[in-house]
Amino acid sequence: MKKIFAWGMSLGFVAASVIVGPAAHAEDSSRTLQIVQAIAPGLLASAPEARNLTISGAKNAFGSDEIRLLSKENGGNRSLSLSIDYATNVDAKQNSTVVLDSEDKNVKAVAQETGNGFRILTVISGATKNRRFDYTFSVPADTQFLKAGPNFLLESGNTVLGSIAEAWALDSQGKSLKTHYEWHDSVLTQVLDEDVAKIAYPVIMDPAWGYTYQYDLAFRASTNMSRLKTCFNCYFPVAGAPKAYPKLGQLLPLQVALFNFECTMGQTIQTATYGSFQFNATKNHVDGFGPNIIFQFIQVGSKNVLVVDAYIVNSLDLIRAPYMAAAGLNWQVFAWNLNSSTPRT
């Protein structure tokens, strides 16, 4: 339950096409949000003010009603559209959070903007026969669903469209439940791998989407990881980075322009074709405690690329543009350094 790519969203409504639940449903929607708060305290409070997320009703190609979500990248040109296939109508909107009904009275969805994307929580309040929850993405037909470290990437051709955080589910006691994703013909399905008759309800689970940065690399993942392990700050262009490759849990007093990016070193993953390392923000980080960022070396289509995948907790509205610009420039320099035959010293 870590990730969620960052930027804002504005939860809007198309009044002519969205059926909003009657006032009598307000109690149900409040109970749904109380369930989320009880199982995962602080999750709802972490949402920024809604700016770039729109939820609306529409007719699909078969003439049936569907609930569609449109996410726009904060300050960028990218967007993502999908349908929440099990949702039937908008029940209520509270601040930056929208509660959606389904045909099963014990199943609701909660759509929420995050710092750089969105999450869709499935809230199961009682016994249900359904263990599969579908989301149909409007993406190119050739889009692949790639496992990348703890998360997943959507890849089309030589381009990473964005990332989906690892699947998670919690019961009423905060116990982790078994769950996984499936991908087929642009449909993401989250599957609850439990005997639904034996679960301690209520349950919450979610897929979370985030926009990523991508930079072309000249070398394979194994070469880039070897270079970093030889001299980390010869390639990683951030003040405070150590020369030796950081150890797990090591404090990293990173500084980007005027922003404090203090982190601890997270997990490193390396295989024959993939490499990644993760930073976890401390309480002194400009975005506060909780965010993380994963730097990934992977082949996408015919290219070797650096994919930067971040989970940002706070919206930082007043400084978002310079904050993201400073970070993006550093990651581009990082890629240039890795491509250079003569690293900086």
Task: Please characterize this protein's 3D structure.
- It is a single chain.
- The protein has 4 helices and 24 strands.
- It is mainly β and 345 residues long.
- Strands 4, 5, 6, 7, 9, 10, 11, 12, 15 and 16 form a 10-stranded antiparallel β-sheet that branches. The chain has a 6-stranded antiparallel β-sheet with strand order 1-2-3-8-14-13, with no helix packed on it. A 6-stranded antiparallel β-sheet has the order 17-24-23-22-21-18, with helices on one face.
- Strand 21 and strand 22 (275-281) form a beta hairpin.
- The two termini are 38 Å apart.
- Mean pLDDT is 83; it is low at 1-24.
Q: In angstroms, what is the radius of gyration?
A: 21 Å
Q: Strand fraction band?
A: 35-45%
What is the average of the pLDDT values?
A: 83
> How would you describe the shape?
globular
Question: Descriptors for this entry?
Answer:
six-stranded antiparallel β-sheet, 24 strands, ten-stranded antiparallel β-sheet, 41% strand, 345 residues
